[in-house]
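Lab meeting notes turned into a lecture example. A postdoc, R.K., suggested we walk through two folding results consecutively so the class can see how the record format repeats. The first protein's sequence and structure tokens come next.
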Amino acid sequence: MFEDKSFPALLKSALGRLPGSLDKREGSMLWDGVAPAMAELALLYLGLDFVLQAGYISTAPREYLLKRAQERGLAPKPASAAVFRAEFDKAVPLGARFSCEDLNFTVTAKIDELVYRAECETPGRQANAYSGQLIPIDYIDGLGRAELVELLVPGEDEEETEAFRQRVLESFQTQAFGGNQADYREQALAMPGVGGVKVHPVWNENLRPAEFVPGPEVQAWFAANVDSLPQAVADWLRPVYTAAAGKLLTVGGAVRLVLLAADGGAPSVELIEQVQTLLDPEQNAGEGLGLAPIGLVVKVEGVQPQAVNLELHLTYNPGWDWDSAQSYVEAVVDAYFAELAAGWAEADFLTVRISQIESRILSGCATMIADIGGTKINGREANLQLGADSIPVGGDLSG
């Protein structure tokens, strides 16, 4: 905003206020007397420009962005630790510590016989790719096998500045309140391990409440047969029939949430259960014991990975063939799919495009690939549009 208040401009303006008959050349008494003050004034304008930029959410550096965000009751999502399923060949005490490569892990809970939750002691996503043998830090008598088997909850780094800035700006456009879509997104994304969420309000809207009301034939059948049904079936059917007959069954109180894990893949069953319990515990569905309002049933599911098979027709540079180039091509394709998955929550649906695949392979593998054409996705020379709740993952790849 103060680009015109540079030292040369200020000096010129100040000297211009003096009579032209005076000596104002560099090194003159007037120049030497005015120049230091204009240098300090230029620095003042630089500081003033910084203050101005720091006062706006869209331009503030992180330190001042945090202060502005506090006015909205917002803070960056903190780093969270990765949680794994670990298997042992004997029982281990809770709190036992193990190392895997350069990271340490602590056993925090028992899942099943000889199966435990192991949490990385270092928050962040660096542990997400870890697997394999665990080495006990403290001696455990008789322990022969200790292994990280499955990532349950991906670790996350502290929320990046630009992602947090966008979230703060969005808070002015959509206010999270009382079970609206913004509220569900905010609550789900606050959970460690959740990287994206889609909210489907009234997700069973294809069902009409009028279709639930039993007609004469159903009423007659129910009266004649309910007592002859197995006890468990009859006990379940009676309240359902009574509610339907009393026109108490509706479809307006159902919400479906679809989650993307923080590592860009499908969430584990455990992560889905954690979010489900937070919002609306299944054993108390609709009773308001979670964050969802009373009377509203929430169903939490994970995004569906869809395998994408690619048939590439490549022209190689001298000295290269498919065997030597395959790993490089796979890395490019995987990076493209990961980029698509990262934008899943903001898109109605994702489209895998042949043009993107070919251009990225030519750009990323220029030393080995001379040309590409006739690419097929799942056997067709056409872009692939995925479902609203699907993300692409690598399938069969041939070149």
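The second example is placed directly after the first for contrast:
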Amino acid sequence: MGKAKEKKIARTIRRNWKDWVFYAVIVCIPVVQFCIMYLGVNFNSLIMSFQTYDVNTGVFSWNGFHNYIDFFEMLGTDRLWLTMLGNSTIAFLVAQFITKTLAIFFSYYMFKKYFGYKVLRIILFIPSIISTLVTVVVFARFVDGALPALFGMERGGLSNPDTTFFYILFYNVWIAFGPSLLVYSSAMNDVPPAVTEAAKLDGCGSFREFWNIIFPNIWSTYVVFTVATLATYFGNNLNLYSFYGPNADTKLYTFGYWLFRETELNKATMDNYPFLSAVGVCFTMILVPIVMLIRKCMLKFGPRPD
């Protein structure tokens, strides 16, 4: 009995050891990638923000806080920052209160399996699985080609400086439906059917069912999307680079587009990378406490399923 038990323990140890080896092999790849592509890149950006780069010698040297000083001086003198602040704020508000509201509405429509929900799901999800460049070309041709020809307009919405930003926002609302629909629909499907059936027997209408049952149950998902949207406040470029490359009108600039444009234009020499790193660090220091505070408040004061 003793030897049999020892053999059984040995087999268990060997099996567990193989399982741990397999687990380590599978997990080590994303862990290494996270360490290099996230921790390493961000640590390098932090160090670079205190340096300057000599294009002639290709050497980084210590520069103290000069990049941060230049950033704050630019804030007070360059009016472009006010434009980017306004556009980025509008982009956030549209994403938060228009895109998410419409996504939740259509998700609930599909959750209830109303008429045509399958076709609607396909139509709304298609833009998210097509290349951005393709959807940009199709959207631009439709807005500046088909619509003016159909309604006898002199110029398209993207060609008109007074309406360009509106159509850019509309495009971003349109292509953002897919992922939101997928996640919100999954969250709604996790609501126990017994709860909705009991509410129906009690005479609960669709609006009350959504407001008192469905929405509280998907509140945690809504918080995640809100935090993610706010976290990309300084990184949202509204796909302007796909529309205009580096030549977008300054009236359309957001913080994300400006950062991406400057990084792309300086990639050959890296001359401005230390300054851009300092800007990124400042943006992070501004945004992190705001995101954490809003997340905490939403989880504490938001509706609860019970």
